[in-house]
Automatic annotation (TrEMBL):
Span of domain Semialdehyde dehydrogenase NAD-binding: 3-95
Organism: Yersinia entomophaga
Protein name per the record: Semialdehyde dehydrogenase NAD-binding domain-containing protein
UniProt xrefs under Pfam families: NAD_binding_10
SMART domains, alphabetized: Semialdhyde_dh
Source taxon at top rank: Bacteria
Gene3D superfamilies named among the record's database cross-references: NAD(P)-binding Rossmann-like Domain
Amino acid sequence: MVKVLLLGASGLVGGELLRLLRLDARISHIIAPTRKPLSVMNKLTNPQADDMSTLLKTLSAPVDAVFCCLGTTRKQAGTQAAFRAIDYRLVVETGETGLRLGARHLLVVSAMGANPHSWLLYSRTKGEAERALSQQGWPQLSIFRPSMLTGKRPVPRLTERLTAPLFAVLPKKWRSISAKNVAQAMLQQAFTVAHSGTVIIESDAMQPAGKISDNRSAS
């Protein structure tokens, strides 16, 4: 029976993943820290605090795997510093916490186009987070790079609503992808695909007809 740590359970991908993890007979316990309380569910422990960095330091129960589905936008966060606090610092701290708790596999949602050298804040921050996680020495690190996500958000993002028609007809590699498909790909990677080191899963491999391959990072 597998115990997991899940960050971002109140978000689009994290919410779908939480549902899948609860339904999976192989999962015995889910620790999902959030700022606001989640609904009471079987298998779920939901510690809460406004300061997630401090909360992570209080966790002590051992886990086998870590799922990180954290993510926001510069507009939602309010400032560049607040955005980086979530998409970089908290993501990196999640990795550090998982290693401290004994996890062997970290699965993290990044973004298509993640590049630590990008001139775009979003892509650069995602790339820097990927690089930092790859330097933590994880036995298994799976990085998921979805294209534009679709699904029902508690607070809709205007940019996604405006660009959704375009992303729906783009070639498969860039086509929009549902949060449910990303969550299913993460679960598949965690329990049916064995690898060592860092593997990057691009968006088209997360589509229903896609095939996750052993695409190793050179970073």
